[in-house]
Amino acid sequence: MSALRALASQTAVYGLSTMVGRMLNYLLVPLYTRLFVPAEYGVVTDLYALVAFLNVVYTYGMETAYFRKVQQGGVGVYATAFWSLTLSSVVFSGLLLLGAPVLAGLLQYPEHPEYVRWFALILAFDTLATLPFARLRQEQKALRYAGIRLFNIGLNVGLNLFFLIACPWLLQEGIATEVLSSIYQHELGVGYIFLSNLLANALTLLWLLPLFPTWKGFDTALWKEMGWYGIPLLFAGLAGMVNETLDRALLKYLLPGTTEARFYALGIYGAVYKLAMLMALFTQTFRMAAEPFFFQQAGRADARQTYARVMQYFVLAAGAIGLGVLLFLDVVKYFIDPAYFEGLYIVPILLLANLFLGVYYNQSIWYKLADKTRWGMYLSLFGAAITILANYLLIPSLGYAGSAWATLLCYAGMMVASYVLGQRHYAVPYRLARMGLYLLSAIALWQLAELLVPAPTSWLHWLVRLLLFFAYLLLGFFLEKPAKSVTSSPSEKNQ
Predict the structure, then answer these.
(1) Rounded distance, CA 398 to CA 188, Å?
(2) Count of CB atoms within 10 A of residue 467's CB?
(3) At the N or C end, where does the chain have fewer CB atoms within 10 A?
(4) Whole-angstrom Cα distance, residue 125 to residue 136?
């Protein structure tokens, strides 16, 4: 259990920084949805979906290759990976800067080539920070990692508040008019969201400068090895981003109506997706701690039992998060403006989709430890095929709900396929019945709450929902309490 406690501790620290940071960013969502109409917020949703895709291109699996080679005792791994990413990001961002006017037109923002230029720099700064942050994770310096992350997020939030709230108010009151007029232009609108991100990333990078290695540590032979390990992960990551972000890009093109109507729907979808991000947030923080942890456990005799126990706890915790969001959605929904409430019915679909994605991330350790990263590529391509086909078939008839269903189908398919393949190549004794019980219990308790007290105006409504939530927690407590160690027999796999 000591290993699992270490993982829980690391996850808690990463989770605290990420949770606090994301909560600060969540506090910006009510601001964005009240300052900007859905069509304007659709621009933010669209461009950040594109950036998530390009982040994979910029890093091309080098972060995971770093974890793997360090675990194998390689020398010069950090410097080699860092300088590889640095040189490639200079090339990629240089091309984006040169082609900004043309790319802005292709993205349907011909009047804003500055968006492309700003994101070219954002991507470069993000990439330069990737390996320093990975090193802090690998060395288990979670507190330092959390501090720098929180600085970045806090600065970004502060700049957003300055540009979107303080500057307009000060100008309206006639305070520091000459100074503010030189740095603030009201017509830039949502552009200040992107500019705040750029400035925050640039200043954060200054904090990471002491972690930059010297060029002397670069090893050409090692770089080739890491490249061969990472290339399949690049394609897997690209396909994964297709699964995660293509729905937002396709909405812009497949929805009927005018350009403004399509961006309106995209804005609704993007805002409502934020309500399901609590599940994605948990998945992300867990993954950040779990990936180096899984590699560190690889040489232990009970490694597979540990992985099975970790998965079991993950499903239990993810079920609690999903159930909590659904039981108290009448409160959670006010993170966005009422103008966006029409899309709330897709929240359960997106929560379940992100839970399946988290399960898949847990399972993915089998092809990484077996050095068969090409299977990650195959699985992601399989998911991408589902994503493209399902969005193409469902968006015209269901609108943005079609994208939500496509996301669920994609992650469910990848999860099942990964489980089947993983049991053949690197069998882990997952307790399927126990995890299924947690998932079905969460769904059943949510539906029971809807049937018992549907009206949110009564105090009884909240009491019943609170009791049902605690019932789920008690179920997990009593089922997991007898477990005294991380070991389990292969026969427990389907119990």
Answers:
(1) 33
(2) 11
(3) C
(4) 17
